[in-house]
Design goal:
Length: 237
């Protein structure tokens, strides 16, 4: 048991207390935001902003620039999603004479017109993260080319996996902001991949967060499907 605990949490012995506290706060707010998203509660965005902002800072300090880029994007898309969901909720309240509560957000399915945007987003994301990792020796060298060795041969399986999960997460966040049910499928895949990835990177609390994220995302997918059926039935009632 002692060896297991040391394997899971031993890396934190070298961390400052403030980093550990910040990671725990980010994890708690991250889990809360996913639970709120499953209930189509608009508070998902302000709560999520706390988590992503903290992770941007932590990941910059840890020099995990691909992950940092994800969370920076989350921060921007949370603001966009907050605005989009707020507008939609108001429209639903007026059209259906419903009370202005959090669950008036209209859920939609993925449309064919979304595919080109998703493809562009995925390609652009993979290219951008690959560029970051290509120039990682320069970044780690204080943004100096002196003595820095560049090349694709320096890429590891972690780097390639990070490119994949980054693309999946960014597509999922865009679809979530657009209120598409299918964003949960992308979350499930990316969250599941991230569990062993973050364990390997040594961030146990974050890895455990993604275990919770995966389970919530599976449940939330079916919850959004249920809400969509209720929404469709109400539209024809």
């Amino acid at each position: 048991m002692a060896e297991l605990l040391n394997w899971l949490f031993g890396q934190y012995a070298d961390y400052s207390t403030i980093f550990i506290v910040l990671e725990l706060i980010a994890v708690v707010f991250g889990v809360a935001s996913v639970l709120l998203a499953s209930k189509t509660n608009i508070l998902v965005f302000p709560i999520g902003l706390v988590s992503t902002a903290i992770f941007v800072y932590l990941l910059w300090k840890w020099q995990l620039f691909g992950d940092m880029f994800i969370n920076a994007y989350y921060t921007v898309m949370s603001l966009y999603g907050w605005i989009n969901w707020s507008k939609n909720k108001k429209i639903q309240s007026v059209e259906h004479k419903q009370s202005d509560d959090a669950n008036n957000v209209r859920i939609e399915h993925l449309h064919a017109g979304d595919i080109p945007i998703l493809s562009t987003l995925a390609a652009g994301t993979i290219g951008f993260v690959a560029l970051i990792y290509y120039f990682r020796p320069v970044i780690n060298n204080g943004f100096s080319f002196d003595g820095a060795v560049l090349g694709l041969h320096l890429f590891t399986w972690v780097d390639y996996t990070d490119m994949l999960t980054t693309a999946l997460f960014l597509m999922a966040m865009w679809l979530m902001a657009r209120r598409k049910i299918e964003h949960w499928i992308l979350w499930i895949i990316a969250d599941a991949i991230s569990v062993p990835l973050y364990f390997y990177k040594g961030f146990t609390f974050t890895a455990l967060q993604y275990v919770v994220f995966t389970l919530i995302a599976i449940w939330a997918y079916y919850e959004w499907q249920r809400r969509y059926r209720i929404q469709s039935h109400a539209a024809y009632a």
